[in-house]
Amino acid sequence: MESRNPSPLCSICLTRPADKTNSHIIPSFFISMVSSVDNSYKRGKELLFTINERSTSTYIGREVLPEQLADSFDELTEERLNQMRKSDVAKDYIFCTHCEKKLGEFLESPYHAHILEGRHIPIDVAYYYWISIIWRTAKFDSQSLDMPKALVNSLGKRLTNYIRKKEGGEDLSFLMSKLPFTYKVLYDKDYSKRGSGIIHLEYFLRNKIALFILGDVIFCASFSKHGFSRTSVPYGLDSLFASAPENDGHSEERVMVVSEDDIIDSIKQPFIDIIVKRRLADDKEKIIHIWQSISKKDPRIPKTKYPCDEFIEYVLSELYSEDIKDGNRTTKEHFTNCIVKGLDKIYGMSVESD
């Protein structure tokens, strides 16, 4: 008789089967905030480009109309469109249906109303809302947030205990003081509608600081026992965060409202610079690797280990040409075409793209 692997257990309750699909690691309203094609901040309207140093993926919400994609894509096949309808910012079978529902009921829905509409929420909700986001991103998206395993496990245990206690209507006060965790929040209402909202997460081991850009919201957390008093915020942002109130879960969350867009611009620019630098370095490696592969097969290619700098720079300029729509810029077909054009332009070689 064929044996079957048991279903994984829910990562929150650790008892029920993890039967839920499409669980968002980052709450969906942040995703919609930065990517809604009509600036509605509504789920289903997303056009999201997920970019790292090695790849770019695209997610298109179910309610986005084909005509709303004309500025970002050339003609799309039904196959590619369906592929991009599958979210890469969500995961299957990590939570049970019950616990995901409780995450929404206890934390996500109240905090959504709090940050967007200014509604009053209990002290514990904001505190554990941010713990849940840090834990989820660190546990299920470690490439984005590489935190010490012991810290991640500790956050997970606290979240599990919190949901159990919350369900049972028990006292939560003892849960609020066992882990060094304080945080600051900056909020620029509707920034993503006026500018270019992004999501970027980073943890700095030396500083014990987590810094999240989440569209209109900037979140900075300290896991030092001294809070922010004896540590610095990376990227030279100490002076900016100095005036933001520090939250420790013992009083209502205080948010610093920002009214000048250049403040958030100054925070997100270092992240963008790092990604661009890493992405360009990786693209150069790909160009060199393709050059070396072709040179083994085509006797017309100069027998040098590396192509000339002029070739590399030309291919990069074509890759990121402003004439190419965002949705087409990072496809394999576009990369191949740029290599072919570079061989023709720099080396006078006509090569068919496969």
Question: What does the secondary structure layout of this molecule look like, with pairings?
Answer:
Blueprint: E1 23-24, H1 28-35, E2 47-51, E3 56-60, H2 78-84, E4 90-91, H3 97-117, H4 123-140, H5 149-167, E5 182-187, H6 191-194, E6 199-204, E7 209-214, E8 217-222, H7 238-242, E9 256-257, H8 261-297, H9 309-319, H10 326-329, H11 332-347
Parallel strand pairs: 5-9
Antiparallel strand pairs: 1-4, 2-3, 5-8, 6-7, 7-8
Helix pairs in contact: 3-4, 4-5, 9-11
Detailed description of the structure:
- This protein has helices spanning 28-35, 78-84, 97-117, 123-140, 149-167, 191-194, 238-242, 261-297, 309-319, 326-329, 332-347; strands spanning 23-24, 47-51, 56-60, 90-91, 182-187, 199-204, 209-214, 217-222, 256-257.
- A five-stranded mixed beta sheet has the order 6-7-8-5-9. The protein has a two-stranded antiparallel sheet with strand order 1-4. Strands 2-3 form a two-stranded antiparallel ribbon.
- The longest helix has 37 residues, at 261-297.
- The chain is of the alpha+beta class.
- It has a domain at 264-347.
- Helices cover 42% and strands 11% of the residues.
Keywords summarizing the entry:
alpha+beta; two-stranded antiparallel sheet; 11% strand; 354 residues; elongated
Gross morphology: elongated
Multimerization state: single chain
Mean pLDDT: 87
Number of helices: 11
- How are the strands of the biggest sheet laid out side by side? 6-7-8-5-9
Helix content range: 40-55%
The unreliable regions are: 1-5
Please tell me how large the radius of gyration is. 23 Å
The largest sheet, given as strand count, sense and whether it forms a barrel, is: 5 strands, mixed
Structural class: alpha+beta
The SSE string, one letter per element, is EHEEHEHHHEHEEEHEHHHH
What's the end-to-end separation, in Å?
Answer: 47 Å
In total, how many beta strands?
9
* Strand residues, percent: 5-15%
